Amino acid sequence: MHAAVRRFHSPDAYDLQGWTPADLTCFGILLQVLIGPRDGEGEESFEFVVCNPEWLRKKYGDDGVIICRHYIIVFDFDFSRIKSAIESLVARAYGEDWHEIALKLSRYAQWEFEDYTPVKNSDQDRG
Question: Which of 29, 43, 44, 102 could cross-link to 6 by cystine, CB 3.0-4.6 Å?
């Protein structure tokens, strides 16, 4: 089984193709990527913060060490290049089932079901 990108969304930019950061020297934007099985239905959200190094410096200070997960660091905002890189990453994701694929993708992007554990039925739920 393989994964496929369904669509891109950002609550920070209405039109991602046409969006330009207000400050080209310091920017960060939340990017939601809806991904599902390539040969099936459904989609789940995977999120990245797309930012440049100056934004990281401004947000986290000059500590000198930042351990990143769920970030895409770019030097300039070029949505077509970012989109292409994500689509390439997703196209390489495969597994025996969707859950295995989603776990692999969650190494890079924050999966909406990351750390989710189903609630076990209790005596109260049984009726």
Answer: 43
Q: How far apart are CA 71 and CA 52, in angstroms?
A: 10
* 4 pLDDT more than 60: yes
Q: Which residue has the tokens 């030097």?
A: 75
Domain limits at 10? 3-117
pLDDT mean over 65-93: 94
Whether 8 maps to a domain, the answer reads yes
| Beta-carbon contacts of residue 125 (< 8 Å; ≥ 6 apart) | none
**pLDDT, tens digit (0-9, with 9 covering 90-100), for 23-66:** 999 999 999 999 999 998 999 999 999 999 999 999 888 777 88
pTM of the model: 0.86
Write out the H or E segment, with its range, that includes residue 31.
strand 28-37
| Residue 48 CB burial class (10 angstroms; 0-12, 13-18, ≥19) | buried
Q: Is residue 127 part of a domain?
A: no
Length of the chain: 127
Phi and psi angles of residue 6, each rounded to the nearest 5 degrees, phi first: -90, -45
